[in-house]
Amino acid sequence: xxxxxxxxxxxxxxxxxxxxxxxxxxxxxxxxxxxxxxxxxxxxxxxxxxxxxxxxxxxxxxxxxxxxxxxxxxxxxxxxxxxxxxxxxxxxxxxxxxxxxxxxxxxxxxxxxxxxxxxxxxxxxxxxxxxxxxxxxxxxxxxxxxxxxxxxxxxxxxxxxxxxxxxxxxxxxxxxxxxxxxxxxxxxxxxxxxxxxxxxxxxxxxxxxxxxxxxxxxxxxxxxxxxxxxxxxxxxxxxxxxxxxxxxxxxxxxxxxxxxxxxxxxxxxxxxxxxxxxxxxxxxxxxxxxxxxxxxxxxxxxxxxxxxxxxxxxxxxxxxxxxxxxxxxxxxxxxxxxxxxxxxxxxxxxxxxxxxxxxxxxxxxxxxxxxxxxxxxxxxxxxxxxxxxxxxxxxxxxxxxxxxxxxxxxxxxxxxxxxxxxxxxxxxxxxxxxxxxxxxxxxxxxxxxxxxxxxxxxxxxxxxxxxxxxxxxxxxxxxxxxxxxxxxxxxxxxxxxxxxxxxxxxxxxxxxxxxxxxxxxxxxxxxxxxxxxxxxxxxxxxxxxxxxxxxxxxxxxxxxxxxxxxxxxxxxxxxxxxxxxxxxxxxxxxxxxxxxxxxxxxxxxxxxxxxxxxxxxxxxxxxxxxxxx
Length: 629
What we know:
Number of strands: 15
Largest sheet: 7 strands, mixed
Radius of gyration: 29 Å
């Protein structure tokens, strides 16, 4: 027979065990409810779909935990199934499994489930939900373990990378470089380098000010590759000098792949280049601007330069004849043609020498020896969408003038929005008259519906109703297509209808000329637009170009010409290393698997009439504030 004291002890132990379990459950539930990360409060569902086309529909075969398993094992099985769906790209099904069978339930895998749910929400472009889920994971007791802290930071860095917030990604990757085990350091270092290469020059300059020696080393070698005055050989020599002076730096011990590939290619720079452009016809000014930019970079390079010949396309009956003349010069690379129809024609030909066409087709297909480089609006639109998403802004209205080019850009934004989970609440084009502008803005903001409701009430009641028409509240920003003089007529209208907190986003098409000094500065503020680094910063190459003060379009063509010379020297690097990035006059340049060069421009705005860099938190802060009220 057991002693009475032992029986009492066992009863107390069991009671304590229940108390501890209940306390732990309460803690976990409190952690789930207290996460906010200074971000807007979320709805009760962990994920909200951003487009009507992405309604959650689950197949009959949706995973259900095995009834024969223990409760914790069933949750583990569900997490494993969700992970498999995530790996296969079935994000909707993956988050549904987690919501039904894992999240919010007491189990040993809650931490891993929160991280997986955060990654899924990032893939679905739900930035705020993703960071809320990370905050939930961070509240768990298990998150204090060093390995879990690393997992949290790795997930957070990946989400910042997904939303193109490269400065924050760099900071997190740097922190991880000090805490990760040695066997995991190489992968993080490669991701850190990619994030550094994605920084704009303005972002690099800002990070330098943090005075972190190791980070500054990464920034320094990135600047070596960004120096357009250096040949490939000089860039390698400068890196090797830095490497000898910083032997203990991670980038000296394990050089980035860019430098390894550059060193492995005996002769990357071309010896003979042909420019194939329309030099005497309607596009003479555009072609001359490209040539000016090309030679500005050409003469800025201090060492061996290639031989350059120019083929005037306008002097031949067709592009085939012009291309034949260019090929007879036995070039290492051809730059051109410029017109889209000519690009379409050469895309169907066998090209004996590499060609960088200065335009692209609506549908590009990979072709041997053919590359595309252009000033298209598509890259700029994607950058604007990514910029807005960093603060959870995913609902846009589209407003454009009725010019043909503007309507085309309107369509391009609509297509990009569908791809990137952005909800378009309204699309309006307007006649450029006072009444046309007012009607379009009223429809965009649903002011006309508010007015109609007031009139309807007055009709039925027979008495006048005092009310103020308020704009719709489900709008994060307006994508605007028009020129700067057009936009400064629209901004005051948005303010008048109490949409002063809604920013306007636009491509570089808006910034066609400098603002009128006699105009009101506030009429063009809260308008964000993409711009090429050559026009937005103190760019040495751009400063050497012929002045075009009245035409930003020609200045952009000069920047494209300058970068075409850089690409002629480094196009092979893109083919050898898919992750190659070049910081240039038109932005951060990358290349896809179809041979199309893409650019990441700057995001700019006007402040007191001056062109300045934009920050996402400055323009989307009101969205957070409104949600907290």
